[in-house]
């Protein structure tokens, strides 16, 4: 694989110095079979002007195709593409084996946990996880108590945010067990690369990403009520004004099932039907991209126009399947996250394959003492908030901010966790200055019906601003094609 | 039964409307183009005034724009967002429907419409001036024709296609009656004998606007009368934009929905088509003109609204004529 001769006038990667962090492409990795070197050589051969021209064309293509999310301001709706970086991120076959089994393990533990807390609550009685953390959680749904779901699967679609630290180890940063999005970009990015960079992909043996729709439909068919021969699967979307609408379209198309809105469905005699030109047609399995709160105005938010009155009743009668199940948000909570290594151990009697980011639980005396003693080195996070609110990054905080944080911790320790500052790995990225290292993460997607399948790779989100650790699309993040090298990587 | 695959009522409705809006766009471009050719020196305002009256927009226009002025009317029909009949409003509405239909229509259809939408939103003022306007109208017309061609070549021909075609044909019939009406407006009051040549030139303009001039020439007498043109546009069995042909095709699509897909509810719209056909064929064009062409066309337009409503009642959910799209934004807990 390392014998490829490519004519290079200029090495574009001279400025890519990994420094403190692991670089996903600038250095060769064991088991990459020379792939990183080949990609670097080919990109250098294309040259900076060539890369920019193709990147521009690729972004125009995404815009024309409407592979966009919609940003709403006061009166206008603007379609934006998720910025696409054309330099791929490489994961070796061995790395992927570990990620894949790690994700499967995590999903198994999350499902076991949800089953337990909505039934016998052994884990609470055994004192592994504090009961009030679960039962007092805003996402805990009493409607789920003692309600059986097929195969014990609550989280059918799970996105797990993973980072690689300074030592090269993958760690889980966050679980997304409600309605994780982003999978459409994984597939679309690959299609885009195949169109715009055939010369970069030539001869590369990569694990395919095309199978997601088929797998998802299979899982949704598996969970349909027993005794239904050819279940009707639908995708329930909030509609065209939802920012993830493109993804809903994508998934409905890939699965070959109708994309419905709440207004298309009706419940009669505790059975769900969709309104067609020929009248009502039974629906058996629903992939819903609506939050729990919006699903059924008779049970949750009464003002919601997006849901279907009577849906939850039909579900509890066993006449329709919902993916994900209701009440999974209690498992991807920040505070519960801290207990995840113990949860894995408790249900599976295994050590976590993918470590958490080391987390100090301030509701525990030891965690609190350590956090208070190291405030200037740690990131402190309130457990109930999301979107980065209330976070204090110790090394960057002023003395006053640290004191305020100390006071808040002492006042209500249970509301806090702390973590060390993580040096996310980087990947060479096309910027205005040339190719430079930028921080990134990875969100693999797992589909679970009877068993768990993980889409090879996942969504690589990259912070386009130099030095930034924030990869969210709302804050200037972009995405990359994620290449999982096939087992016997040959050209 | 050729297909058992169910079609969501909402998709059927969106197909119907997407097709209508695209057809409306094309015809509006044709009407604007022909109106400009009707401008006679010193009487420019009259030509544009009839366009406003044809669409029954007099009061809305007066409210938003004031007095009739050619440039203002052009803007009103091309760029004015508060005018629900303008080109930009039509493309906006077509795209909203296309967006709902993305799981169903071909990627090529969506991509073309999406790019066309972006182009139309970027029309600059100078493109409305002088001879640029005719070029702009051609561009719009050709883009819709590209849409029609892409649809013909890529849209899956199940029941959804029938709803698309029904929407397109009803709109086309309606627009043909309006085009005829615009010319009729310009005939009043009756011109003196020496204006007959100019009259004929203008009828030629109407026929060119619907790309029917050459076909008309082939079948009409050399010394044609206005009634020959009226007959051609209303009842010619072969001209693609004649009201009669549009109705016959609509009838065929409705029948297909019943026989191939087992859909019930076609009875009322089919009966309505029967009645409209009788109204078109029972009298000669001369008779229609002498009784009053404008009133006749007005009646046709009302019947077409009734036909659309009957189709909607039968197949679309919660049908309401002039259904306004729900603009409320909705956000779920998308985790990205």
Automatic annotation (TrEMBL), chain A:
Parts forming coiled coils: none
SUPFAM superfamilies tied to this protein: Glutathione synthetase ATP-binding domain-like
Domain (Circularly permuted ATP-grasp type) ranges: 88-463
InterPro entries: ATP-dep_Glu-Cys_Ligase-2 (IPR051680), CP_ATPgrasp_2 (IPR025841), UCP005522 (IPR016450)
One Pfam family from the record: CP_ATPgrasp_2
Signal peptide positions (record): none
PANTHER family according to UniProt: BLR5612 PROTEIN, SLL1039 PROTEIN
Protein name: Circularly permuted type 2 ATP-grasp protein
UniProtKB/TrEMBL annotation, chain B:
Pfam families reported in the protein's UniProt record: Alpha-E (PF04168)
Coiled coil: none
InterPro entries registered for this protein in UniProt: ATP-dep_Glu-Cys_Ligase-2 (IPR051680), DUF403 (IPR007296)
Domain DUF403: 7-316
The protein's name: Alpha-E domain-containing protein
